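Journal club prep, notes for RB
We'll compare a predicted complex against what the paper describes. Inputs for the 3,4-dihydroxybenzoic acid case:
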Amino acid sequence: MSSTDERAGTRRAIATVCLSGTLEDKLTAAAAAGFAGVEIFENDLLASPWSPKQVREHCVDLGLTVDLYQPFRDFEAVPPAVLAANLRRAEHKFAVMEQLGADTMLVCSTVSPDAVDDDDLAAEQLHTLADRAAAHGLRIAYEALAWGRFVNTYEHSWRIVRRAAHPALGLCLDSFHILSRGSDPAAIRTIPGEKLFFLQLADAPRLEMDVLQWSRHHRLFPGQGAFDLTAFTGHVLAAGYSGPLSLEVFNDVFRQADPGPAAVDAMRSLLALEESLGTTELPVAPALRGHAFTEIATAGPEVSPALAGLGFTHVGQHRTKPVALWQQGAARILVNSAGVEESASVVALAVESADPVASADRAQRLLAPVLPRTHSAGEADLSAVAAPDGTSVFFCRTGPGDSWLDDFAPVSGKAASGKAVSGKPGQVVDGAGLTGVDHVSLTQPFDHFDEAALFYRAVLGLEPEPVTEFAAPFGLVRSRTVTGGEVRIALDSALLRRGDWAPGVREPQHIAFATDDALASARAMRALGAPLLPIPGNYYDDLDARLAPPPDLLDALRAHSILYDRDEHGTLLHFFTEILGGRVFFEVVQRIDGYAGYGAANAPVRMAAHRRHRLAGR
Ligand SMILES: O=C(O)c1ccc(O)c(O)c1
Ligand SMILES: [Mg+2]
């Protein structure tokens, strides 16, 4: 993974606790993702059949160094008899570390009932420990746990380390413990760099909960949560820290995830962090200009008639593949009838990039899997990468000269709307007033939700919007949209999936089209026979109570099953088709006065309506 420019001093490490599996699984995944070092978690070693020396040899073979051994708990500020036992315990671990080839041991601030609140005693005993470590050529990095009994801030751990004044005693800074408590990290700059022995990086969502539970279950890789890791790490580097940037993430999902992709996700988070710090250079994300096309694969018959009903025209047919190009305004849908499953699904999205080659280069540098392209001579060479959920993401530039549209032979004849079209691919065809794609909504497997948001942010340069949650008929749904350059991708995920109740509610995906006049579009689509989704009267009664749209409008919304929402900017009118071929549906969206949301308040009503429709269709 040496394709990344590195400034001297950028070493990347990961704690084995971040990854799932046995120590062997973890080391293999960390090395494959390009990490240079690991923090070995004691439990991973204890459960391993390898001796510490064999672990070291294995790491050497993989090109990994063992940068930290951890955690050593409940050492300091204890009565003499306990101190003697703790020093004996430490000597055993020093012997392990010598075999492991690890030179730094992490000591967490005590949570022991044996300890007393006495900084002088803590400093004195840590001095003794550092002396013993130094005799083995080892160092002690003291870390304030956010829930430490007496020492739970970095400022406090630094006072003790300074008082102990031993060259083999320094600090371990862990962004979670510092930022979760709301400490100001700026004062880290005042700590001499040579006293910063180790840096652990973790992000987390903002949660109001017990800090230990928050830390042990909900940490995330940098860029996936709410903490400002760029500012934090900037302070640490400004202090003169020169050790590795090491990820230490305790997370229930990552602990069960395939360690290979999880380690790649981790590495991507570090690369993006380093880019934001200016310590690693990546090709700048080229400007995007909207959705070029979205591809649906299906073996069933439902999608094409629905597109015709929405006023789309079948304008092109791929010269070598069973792929039809449907267009209306700037909205382009590819229907790939080579789909293997009967149910339709969104298999690819394509974004307009100012520089597709640079987009693909950046994606590759951020470890996005590059997809092999099968194309015949003379066909456009589109670069594509795989998103975490397997969706193909294409980078293209639609226009004269190098257009992918040239791969499609024109289809002449009558448009589904009855309007004659010349059948030139790429031309703007108006059927029912759709102007383009507003957003593409991809339901994510819950386990890829945070990874996906980071992927789209880092790889495509999109901005993640805040996470929202809403109560849907079949469970809570978490939602996050990534936007930029007229590209909007909505990531939705069921928080839990348990049992087989509601088997028909299989992760639908949808494509939302933009219109300047939702009412006129709905009328035109009804006339064209679009399979639009009926919305029950209760919704409109409540809408009247809540937002009181003008009575005429309310009547029209009710008559056409159009939903309504308002935010601080403006108003949303939107409506939906039925689910087509098991999984995909379409939405039509009119944003008035800069409405910026997605009508999340209406999603539960839409979901229940889809469910009703599916039951009726059985
Ligand atoms: O949760 C813990 O106990 C724990 C252990 C070691 C660490 O470095 C840490 O940040 C937390
Ligand atoms: Mg830590």
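Talking point for the session: The mean pLDDT is 92.
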